[in-house]
Amino acid sequence: MKRREFLNMLAGAASVWPGLAFAQQNQPTKRIGLMAHQPLPPVQRFRERLRALGWEEGKNLIIEYRYAEGRDDRFPEFAAELVSMPVDVLVAWGSPAAFAAKRATTTIPILIGAAGDVVNIGLISNLARPDANLTGFIALNVELESKRLELLKEAIPHLSRVTILANPANPLNRFNLETARRSAEKLGVKIEVVEARAAADIESALTKVLETRPDAVLLASDTLMLSKRKEIADFMAANRIPAIYPFNEYAGVGGLFIYGANISVLFERAADYLDKLLKGEKVGNLPVQQATAFELIVNSKAAAALGLAIPPNILLRADEVIE
Questions:
Q1: Which of 142, 168, 195, 253 is a plausible cystine mate for 230, CB 3.0–4.6 Å?
Q2: 3-class DSSP state of 293
Q3: CA dist 278 → 28, 29, 48, 59, 290 (Å)
Q4: Can you list the domains of the chain with their CATH numbers?
Q5: For the segment 248-269, what is each residue's pLDDT rounded down to a tens digit?
């Protein structure tokens, strides 16, 4: 290339680059609201995926975090506050948060990072083509309750009494319990239910659990109890009660069995949906997707402390065995 042509090319580029830089610096910052109980690992995976997609907090994205810390009753207040800002998209973890968002707005897109059976509880009527302003990812918790009971029966052949610790305020609770009772009848297991509506109720609920004299405990699929996960796992260990939990986060506090959808994977996929929504995609074009990644975690150390011998076939199926 001749020197004169090269200089002309540079001059032309110089006239364009300032405009590009100006456009990038003045790109509208998007604001989203995120409602959950605590800033657990799935939220971090969500943020990491957003950064990989080019959304960086403090530059072109503002995330308004609202954590209920074990109180579902705070979600309606959070949702109203976020809608009034307004945010461009509302992100919800769990059915109570999603319902609060739905009641707060019919126009702002609502993205469910993870929730249970949204059809049975009336949150969304059409998974393939959402007909409201909600879409997102679900873990099919209703079906998983049966699988958790089956796993307990397999691990504890003499199992005859199971106590379920559940949150009656969660719309999914009724369907979970119906499924668990049907499964328990087939397995020849008696079910007792102990309720906790808020994190503050957990201590007294655990005392009631002990009074039921269970062979094992099943933690219902509910994010409220995550805020007290260590206290719950410690209680089960101290009282030598085998328990099965729904979320990966219980593995880090000594939970015996964890079986459920990988919530971090769901939130990572939700970040891809958020990217589309922030770029103008319509909610109706983004079908609700079901979990495809499930994990079984077995804590053999906790089992040994309980004097429980984990059957080899369970250990072989486990995605992770904590020694």
A1: 253
A2: coil
A3: 11, 10, 17, 15, 22
A4: 9-138+263-292 (3.40.50.2300), 141-261+295-322 (3.40.50.2300)
A5: 999 999 999 999 999 999 999 9
